[in-house]
Amino acid sequence: MGHDRKRAVAERLKLPKDLITGDVNVRILGQSEIFIENYKYIIEYSECVIKLQCKNTKLKICGNRLVIEYYSKDEMLVKGLICEISYY
Description:
Elements: H1 3-12, H2 17-21, E1 25-29, E2 33-37, E3 39-45, E4 49-54, E5 58-71, E6 75-87
């Protein structure tokens, strides 16, 4: 099933789109915390850059003193001074 079709089904069934499509879900708490759901694996990890492979994109977090405070197979909490978040 195509990505657009999955989104349409999720809308009709009133389900969260990220649950059906596997899209990355990012919640930013100020400039010091970011909670990420639906990532696949860590590409790069340093105190200045964290790169994650997600299902449909890659996510890059730049900052200072970045630490992965918690992670499981599909969610993660990053703390530190977050300066930039980008998809590539």
